[in-house]
Structures are given as C-alpha cells and as structure tokens.
Amino acid sequence: MTPSKLKSSPERTWTWEQWQAGRAERRRLGNLVAPKNIRRKKSEGDEYLRETYDGERGPPFNKPFDPSADEK
Questions:
Q1: Range 7-46 burial, b when 16+ CB lie within 10 A, else e
Q2: DSSP secondary structure letters along the chain
Q3: Which of 23, 54, 67, 69 has the CA that lies 20 to 30 A from 16?
Q4: What is the pLDDT of residues 35-72, one digit of tens each?
Q5: Cα within 13 Å of Cα(29), Cβ side
Q6: How far apart are CA 59 and CA 65, in angstroms?
Q7: Dihedral pair phi/psi, residue 34, rounded to 5°
Q8: Is the dihedral of CA 42, 47, 50, 52 positive or negative?
C-alpha cells in the first residue's frame, strides 16, 4: 500500500461535540436536496437492532452520544 499524501496535524483534532454539530449541519443540508425519510421500513437486521436500541432501529440522532450505553 502506498503512503497517503494527506497530512494530519494534532491542532486539527475535533471534539465529539464539534463532530456532532458538523454532522447535524450536513444532515440539514442533505435534507434540502433529498427526502428526509428515505430509510427502509424493515431490514434483515431489525431484530438485533430493535433489541439493542430499546425497540428502535438505531440510536436517536437528536440526542448526545452516550458511550456508557454500550456497557448495558
């Protein structure tokens, strides 16, 4: 594998809150050009997902990430 030409620097590190804010903005902009509700209503992983996320198919997008939720 060839080394990447992209350089990273420690001063450009994002906090989790900054990443979430950026993701929320990307989602908002995406909703301007595509339908908001394009998720499938059912998939083969539903049983596992609903068991993991208290009856939902995934974590809520409007709540902060809680790493302790993985410890349940």
A1: eeeeeeeeeeeeeeeeeeeeeeeeeeeeeeeeeeeeeeee
A2: -PPPS----GGGPPPHHHHHHHHHHHHHHHHHHS-S--S-S--TTHHHHHHHBTTBSS--TTS---GGGGG-
A3: 54
A4: 777 666 777 778 888 888 888 877 776 666 666 655 55
A5: 6
A6: 9
A7: -140, 155
A8: negative
